[in-house]
Batch of 2 targets.
Target 1
Amino acid sequence: MALLEAKRITAGYGETEILHRVFVKVNEGEIVSIVGPNGAGKSTLLKTILGLLKPREGKVILEAEDITGLDPDRIVRKGICYVPQTDNVFASLTVEENLEMGAFIRKDNYQNRIQEIYTIFPDLEERRKDRAGKLSGGQRQMVAIGRALMLEPKIILLDEPSASLAPKLVRLIFQKISEINRSGVGILMVEQNIREALRIADQAYVLAMGRNRFHDTGQALLNNQEVGKLYLGD
Ligand SMILES: Nc1ncnc2c1ncn2[C@@H]1O[C@H](COP(=O)(O)OP(=O)(O)O)[C@@H](O)[C@H]1O
Ligand SMILES: [Mg+2]
């Protein structure tokens, strides 16, 4: 079943149209990667799905419910969480306070959830009392993802989770994303590490100049000669 669908999305900033009838779908249990050149509109698509940007045309459907045009806080409550590429932690707050901020709309006791997140990211438990601003880039990314998980979302939108990380940490972050997915959370992720992103994706989309360019399984796109030549430097 489709967990999330963005259908024929046209969106932009002011007069400028950036996305032209873009389509993306995430089925239950899937990791879906969106790749493509800088400026293709990948981040704009995530912002439109979250309601930070209102589409001019098209629909966003979550589990058969039309959520197009709702405000971001309503969309978050419905089970979509978002990790932006930059400025995604509160630097002056501790790791644990960051996680607590992620639970701000939860009325129940969320301490168990914090423990679950420490199970996924043991590093964070060790540093729970440290300010997030003092952490390494990889650990900050874990805080950002952990915070998004506090609301037990149905799906998380990740904007370049591996950006500016050393290769070893890139691998670790992708492993963690797979682990989170196996725990039942859908993943829609934008990535510059195209090869890694295709490798772990069930489905993947190449966006170029605001339009769908390729769509197939991650494996098929890895083996696609045209994709290889254009985007993987083959
Ligand atoms: N807030 C904004 N206001 C105006 N133009 C923007 C804004 N954010 C992005 N853009 C433009 O939209 C296009 C797509 O940007 P973006 O979605 O960030 O691409 P990507 O994430 O694929 O690199 C770019 O031309 C960019 O300059
Ligand atoms: Mg971007």
Target 2
Amino acid sequence: MKTILISGGGGYLGTYLTQVLLKNYKVIVYDEFYFKWLFKNKKKILFNKRLKFIKKDILSVSLDDFEGVDIICDLNGIPNDPSSELNKRHTWNVNYKGRKKFAEIAKSCGIKRYIFNSTCAVYGYNKKVVNEKSKTNPLSTYAKANLKAEKEIYKMRNKNFKVNILRNSTLFGFSQNLRLDLVINIFVNSYVLKKKISVNGDGNQWRPFISLTDVGKIYKTLIKNDNFPSFITNLVAFNSTIRDLACTVIKHFGGSLNQIEFIKNNKDNRNYRTRSNNLKKYFKNLKFSNFNYELNQLIKGIKKYKIKSNISTIRMKFYKKKFLN
Ligand SMILES: NC(=O)c1ccc[n+]([C@@H]2O[C@H](COP(=O)([O-])OP(=O)(O)OC[C@H]3O[C@@H](n4cnc5c(N)ncnc54)[C@H](O)[C@@H]3O)[C@@H](O)[C@H]2O)c1
């Protein structure tokens, strides 16, 4: 049975991915556990006897952390544009230097595959639909630090150390360690609580999306098949304007369009669409999860776990407290 180490595995995506991978593998979660659900609820998790935690800062990694590990999934760091600007030095230290050092040590330890979770934010603002061959245009410190880490880590690849760079779209879907600062999750939570949805600006801005379920399937396929080569790919299921998304969510609840409020002077300048040639090439059998199913899981989970908008679910709130106090 392979052993998978998930760096940053205590977060939104990591909490979900850990549970997916535990069905077939031993999992080590390496994380400072800023967001506690996984750390506190180990006993509730299926196959938890195969689960180990290393509670440590990414910058303190050492060779012995990787003992017995076959594959590393790196989801670590400051996870969005606004939080990355609060303390730029920290963002560079963790998202670039820390993740690069993690990969260097991994390679020196004989780890076979390094899966680096990156972001479509590396393309920045773009009028054209971008794919893996498009020019990158990172605008935020987050995007710049991640792109630099990507480049350095991808250079380390060889036949014994495969590197896969996964440039994620904006994620959505239920995780016990939910984020309520991601647009689809925000819309669902807002409708559940207030029966209305607020859209920044006119809502005509485009964004790419993918669900946690689909990202989980991609990781599973990649980890199972030792023959996958190194590659860089965008992870995108669909592109939508924020306005259309709000309408779809409202319709799902059986609500009416006048429950959408447009905050005109709160303009959102992020506007881009992505597609992927490599996703089709390498994951031929991938069937994207049904959107209504994902919304239902979110609604059920938010109600069941009584998840609220607070320091554990809004990354900007957490990092503001961490850096500005
Ligand atoms: N969520 C999205 O929509 C999205 C989109 C594109 C890319 N990504 C990328 O996916 C990855 C996971 O995203 P997420 O939404 O799960 O973020 P998250 O904030 O929920 O998870 C990040 C994890 O990293 C840990 N961490 C942060 N700094 C650390 C440090 N110095 N040492 C040790 N652990 C530390 C945190 O405790 C947290 O558990 C991130 O790399 C993010 O940039 C996410």
